[in-house]
Amino acid sequence: MGGDEGSKEQDTLNAIVGTDEFRQRCYKVAIDCSRYGDGLFFVRQNKDGRGEVSLTRPDIWFPVVSEDDIEEYTHHVLAWQTKVGEESLLKVRIHEPGTLTKREYRLSGSKIDTLVSEEVEKTGLSGFAVIPAHMLITSDRTTGIDDYTDVDSIVSEILVRCSQIAKVLDAFSSPSVQGPASALQQDPITNEWKLKVGDFFMRDSTEDPPVEYLVWDAQMEANFKFIEQAVNFLHSISEVGAVIFQDELAKLGQVTGPGMKRVMQAALSKVNRLKLFYDPALRKAIALASELGYSPSLDRFHISIDWQDGLPADETEQAQVQSTLHGAGLLSRERALRQQGLTGQTIEDELARIESEAAAQTPSFARLTQTQSSGAQ
């Protein structure tokens, strides 16, 4: 929300965030946060001359911070190598609040040779066009910590163990046969001895060996136990938990909304930590985009984002909570309808329908008493 329904501020917000491209870009930035530790929103003008929230690549981002405060960015530098014909170039985009400097350098091998061109543009923004969103970040880092570095060794060990098990199983997938010499016959052309499959082999006594496959006991239980333990470590360190996977959910059976939240506590805690960094970055990006071609522009502190936990909605639980809050006078009918996803005129129509149905269900003598009381007043 950026203002009251129908206000100019809310219309501006709807124009910026109400597109499929915006939601897809937010999703891509969240994926970049997971794999790089950082995701980058990028504010630019679209073909209509209005601001929009886009994204750029974290792998070409080089942040520059103040010597006095590591959390204060002085520049956001985007740099990548490209080739024009046989010539190697380094393209650099230096972002400052309200300013973009474009430079191109000619490369000699892996080193900068000469400056080819330089151009300075005004962005029309009050802040940086590049807005980073982080995963977990510490006081001595300028970039976030990704989801995969801590679990790479565990995943590698699991893959190696699975590969070793597969090799052993492949080696013994075609078992050998043992039996007496009478079970063989010689091919008159190749002189090779072959097993007479399907024939009857006479055993004169129980001391004669039977024709049978060699049974191999791989004793693989320890290997599978190791993989199971490694997967448990993976779930713990990654903070996602095992319950998010379908087979683990099936073991729990029917789980209610509160129960689902309890078993998903680890994953939800991680999501909430991501929102701590993602929410202010997204609000800042939306506010900056509103400075380009919109009136009025938005204040990021007046923008609110209603985050969902991603779990399936338990309608029974929601109804009970809303009923309790409404009965205690802490939740209006209008707010309850907004939580159901209704807006604007739809809410007014729904409230009128509720009042109409409530009046129709009220006994006639009660309506008469209410009318007389109103007349006496």
Low-confidence stretches: none
Largest sheet: 5 strands, antiparallel
User: Helix/strand-derived class?
Assistant: alpha+beta
Number of strands: 12
How would you characterize the overall build of this protein?
The protein has 377 residues and is α+β, with helices and mostly antiparallel strands. The chain folds into 3 domains: 1-174 and 217-312, no CATH class; 176-215, no CATH class; 313-359, no CATH class. Helices cover 41% and strands 21% of the residues. It has helices at 8-17, 20-36, 152-171, 221-238, 246-252, 257-263, 265-289, 315-327, 333-339, 344-361, 364-376; strands spanning 38-45, 51-56, 61-65, 73-84, 87-96, 99-108, 111-122, 130-134, 177-178, 184-186, 193-195, 212-213. The chain has a 5-stranded antiparallel sheet with strand order 3-4-5-6-7, with no helix packed on it. The protein has a 3-stranded antiparallel sheet with strand order 2-1-8. Strands 9-12 form a two-stranded antiparallel sheet. β5 (87-96) and β6 (99-108) form a beta hairpin. α3 (152-171) packs antiparallel against α4 and α9 (333-339) crosses α10. The longest helix is centred in the C-terminal third of the chain and has 25 residues, at 265-289. It is flat and about 100 Å long.
